[in-house]
Amino acid sequence: MQECAICREKKITLLQLNDCSHCFCSFCTFNWFIKKNTCPLCRHPFTLETVRVKMNNDMLVRTRYHKKSIEEEEFMLKFIKYYLKIKINYLYNRQFACQSFSKILINLLLKNFNMLSRSKNKSMDIVISIIKKFFDANRRDFFRYLNLDNEYKNKYKVIENMLFQENIIDQSLCNTIVTV
Predict the structure, then answer these.
(1) Which one of 74, 87, 126, 163 has the largest count of C-beta atoms within 10 Å of its C-beta?
(2) Looking at residue 180, what is its pLDDT?
(3) Tens digits of residue pLDDT in 61-112
(4) CA 154 from chain center: how many Å?
(5) Residues 172, 32: Cα–Cα separation, whole Å
(6) What pTM does this model have?
(7) To 5 degrees, how large is the angle CA 118–CA 24–CA 29?
């Protein structure tokens, strides 16, 4: 197992910044990236596009647990990347790009929902907190802005129901898109 350079926890998988090759756990990487876009050790700038999931000393995947850890890290990395793309495009009023990335994010959630709801990885809490913000009832204006077609409104509704059934969101956060 490798150790995260920030929290010093031993992990099976870490996220490697490709520009400088430093490795950190996903929890520390995402929390750091929210504040600064530089490596915590060498201060070299990075983007999430240049981050990759690294297995313990690049060894072969030996068990289902190792495979699951890699899949979770890759899912979280993709989710955070697309969420940030939506956020940036929304700030710059790029509606079409925002729609496109929202559709990708909705499909990603549908495809990986079981992983999200059953994960014991503490980094998944970051994804869940973003989902709660995304499904917040105060986001009606955002969904009006997105102007999603019926197919994606229905997919969104399915995700919303699954999140409610798994107690990830409560009833007050449901029905955000129905009234739009």
Answers:
(1) 163
(2) 44
(3) 577 877 888 889 999 999 999 988 988 888 898 989 988 998 999 899 999 9
(4) 21
(5) 31
(6) 0.82
(7) 70
Residue type, 106: I
Q: Concatenated DSSP letters for the chain?
A: -EE-TTT--EESEEEEETTT--EE-HHHHHHHHHH-SB-TTT--B--GGGEEEEEGGGPPP-SHHHHHHHHHHHHHHHHHHHHHHHHHHHHTT-HHHHHHHHHHHHHHHHHTHHHHHH---TTHHHHHHHHHHHT-GGGHHHHHHHT--HHHHHHHHHHHHHHHHTTSS-GGGSSTTTT-
Token pair 């509606």 in the structure block, residue: 95
Instruction: Encode pLDDT of 15-71 as tens digits.
Output: 999 889 899 998 899 889 888 989 999 999 998 888 998 876 555 657 787 788 888
Comparing C-alpha atoms, which of 76, 65, 63 is closest to residue 31?
Answer: 76
Q: At what angle do helices 64-91 and 95-111 cross, to 10 degrees?
A: 160
Domains of the chain: 2-58 (3.30.40.10), 94-173 (no CATH)
| Interatomic CA distance for residues 13 and 73, integer angstroms | 8
